[in-house]
Amino acid sequence: MRPPIASLVVLLLVVAALTVIGLDGIHAERVPQAVLNGEQQIAADTALSVRTPIDVEASTIRRTAAAYPATSTSTPATALKALTSARKPVLGRVLLDAHTGKLLAAGGRPVPLAGVDAARLTSGHGAIPPRLMTSGGTRQLLYFAKVTLPAQQDANQDQYQAPSRTERQWLLVVSEALPALTTYGDGRTAELLDASGTVLATTVHGTASPAAAGSGLSAAAARAAHGSGSDTDASGSLLGAATGSRRTVAGWAQVASATGPGETDDLGLVVLTSRAVPATNTAADYSGFALEAAGALAVVALLLGMALYFSVQQPLLRLYLSAGRLARGATGDGTAASAELSRPVPVHGFGELARIGRALDSLRGQLLGESGPQEFPARRGPGYRALAVVGVVVVACWSMPMIFVLNRADIATAVPAPVLADQQARTEIATNRVRQSLGRSYTDLSEAAASLPGRSRAAQTEVLRKSLADHKQYRSLYLLDRSGAITLRVGGTPLRTLVHVPHDGGITTVNTSGRIPAIAAYAQVRAGKGKAPAAGMVLFGEIDVQALNSILPRPKLGSVWVTDRDDRVLAASVGYRAFQSLPDSGLTRLARATQGAPGTTGTATSAVHNTSSGPSVDSAAPLAQSGPTARLGWHVVTAEPAAALQIPAVQAEQYTMLAGILGLAVGAACLGWLHVVVIRPLRAVAVLVERLAGGDRRTVLHPVNHDEIGSVTRSLELVRQALAERDRAARSGHAAGPSRSLRENTLQR
Question: Which of these, 107, 366, 439, 563, is most buried using a 10 Å CB contact count?
Answer without folding.
Answer: 563
